[in-house]
Amino acid sequence: MLVLGCEEEKVETPAAASAEPQAAAPPPPAPVVEEKPEPKKPKKTLADCSDSKEVEFPSPEFEAAVRLKLQKPEGTVTKADLSRLRSLNLAQVKLDELDICFFSQTKNLRELFLGPGKIDDLSPIEGLTKLESLRASMNPVEDVAPIAKLEKLDRLDLGRTQVRDIAPLASLTKLTELMLDNTPLSDVSALGKLEALEIVSLKNTAVKDFSPLTGLKELKTVYVGGTPGDIVPLLPLKSRGVKVIDT
Fold first, then answer.
1. In this structure, what CATH number is given to the domain that contains residue 177?
2. Residue 108 lies in a domain
3. Which end of the chain is more exposed for a tag (fewer CB within 10 A), N or C?
4. Using only C-alpha atoms, what is the Rg of the chain?
5. Is 127 part of a structural domain of the chain?
6. 15 occurs within a structural domain
7. Cα separation of 234 and 92, whole Å?
8. Best CA proximity match to 138, nearest among 120, 116, 162, 157
9. Residue 68 carries which DSSP code?
10. How far apart are CA 218 and CA 146, in angstroms?
11. pLDDT of 1-52, one tens digit each?
12. Beta-sheet pairing, 155-157 with 177-179
């Protein structure tokens, strides 16, 4: 008997699974756009000032400070009024600059206190030759040449500024108090000419050589904490009763 063999059952191999789709490449990083500093406004000159007799104020806070000193709460403030100012406290007024149109009218100021701000140019007050006290601390001031002719200055605060060169201050021989703390100052040789100095602060500066201070006969207090300098040259001052504070 003829036996027919059964054909092997063919098992179809399933088609190979399609390759897993590759993850999309991350998009390239956005280009870094460097922020360009705002260009400085052109320096204002007296030729830019209005002929109006009325004073233009940069802010209500500024106006309030002026009115307080003038004792004029209401009414128009004129340029003639500004000549009556003897003292002006702008400690609570944040300023980006000093306005020459305003300060050119304040020739009789004896005291000027500026608040923290962005003031980097003191030339608008270089004509205030009657100033006896000036505070310009906590502003990015670098150049002190504009105040070199303010020879009646008795008290000057330039702490927390960017002042490095104090050579122009050598002409301010009536100074009794000078604050230069927290500045990049390293050379204090000009202080040797300020024979009336009684108090000087050099805290947190880069001063290493304090010897220019040793000949100052009127010196009573000197602050040198946070400086890299050796206070040995100041020891003779201590023997004279000068307070040398190095903390």
1. 3.80.10.10
2. yes
3. N
4. 34
5. yes
6. no
7. 37
8. 116
9. H
10. 26
11. 444 444 444 445 444 444 555 666 667 776 666 666 566 678 889 899 999 9
12. parallel
